[in-house]
Design a protein that fits this description.
This protein is of the alpha/beta class. The model has no long low-confidence stretch (mean pLDDT about 95). The chain contains 6 helices and 15 strands. It has one domain: L-arginine/glycine Amidinotransferase, Chain A (5-stranded Propeller), CATH 3.75.10. About 45% of the residues are buried.
Length: about 260
């Protein structure tokens, strides 16, 4: 099935982004934009058709489009981001996704960031933390049970989102930082652990048989290659200053 990668440009206001676990440091926005364009090029090289929606200068975090929706084969769930400053990001994303999927919505009092939702087969793991609450888990379960999905909640500590701590490498195999999430919750999967000196390396983006990973995580990337994975590398060092990972900057779904 052809893949679409929904993206959104880096806004000029990126330096005013929300931060939870990182100290604020200067961001070179021009360089961040160039890195984002290289990221989009990598998505194309891995077989995705990139669909860009307009930039949103009034929303500093809008480049991190993953947090605004959860897209499955049957339906797209429009989230209600945990940071109030981000809730205006969802309208443009919903408009774009409406051409590809039927929409459902997470509503008040629930809050949910898409970065807290990890799909492994027919199970969606939802991280409960600073951006996503239990009410969102119940709403998501209500939306998805009719389609045969299971929804499981787990606590996230020490990082912004669940997918900062664990992502899928291929069916049955995950990449995990066990310091940030309970590895036993993924006992039904084989696991590769991140190098202890690279705590943010667990966030990689799986596209088919390959994964997209950050250039900064050399030792973890070597572990992935040793496991026989195809690893495409991009530099996202400026975006990382805004607490971003590889999954954050796109929504990948079947056309």
């Amino acid at each position: 099935m052809p893949l679409i990668a929904l993206t959104r440009p880096v806004p000029r206001s990126l330096e005013a982004c929300e931060l939870t676990h990182l100290e604020r440091t200067p961001i070179d926005v021009v360089r961040a934009a160039a890195q984002h364009e290289a990221y989009e090029h990598a998505l194309r090289s891995l077989g995705c058709s990139v669909l860009r929606i307009p930039a949103s200068p009034d929303h500093p975090d809008s480049v991190f489009v993953e947090d605004t929706a959860v897209v499955l084969d049957e339906v797209a769930i429009i989230t209600r981001p945990g940071a109030q400053s981000r809730r205006g990001e969802t309208a443009a994303v919903a408009q774009s996704l409406s051409h590809h999927r039927e929409l459902r919505w997470i509503s008040e009092p629930a809050t949910m960031d898409g970065g807290d939702v990890l799909r492994l087969g027919r199970v969606l793991y939802v991280g409960i933390g600073s951006r996503t609450n239990g009410a969102a888990v119940e709403q998501l379960r209500g939306h998805l049970t009719p389609f045969g999905y299971e929804v499981e909640a787990l606590d996230v500590d020490g990082c912004l989102h669940l997918k900062s701590a664990v992502t899928e490498l291929r069916p049955g195999l995950v990449l995990i930082n066990p310091a940030w999430v309970e590895a036993r919750r993924f006992a039904s999967h084989q696991a590769i652990e991140t190098d202890p000196g690279e705590p943010f390396a667990a966030n990689v983006l799986r596209i088919g048989d390959d994964v997209l990973s950050a250039a900064a995580h050399e030792r973890t990337n070597a572990r992935l290659r040793s496991a026989g994975l195809g690893v495409a590398i991009v530099d996202v060092s400026e975006l990382a200053k805004a607490e971003a990972g590889l999954t954050c900057c796109s929504l990948i779904f079947g056309a």
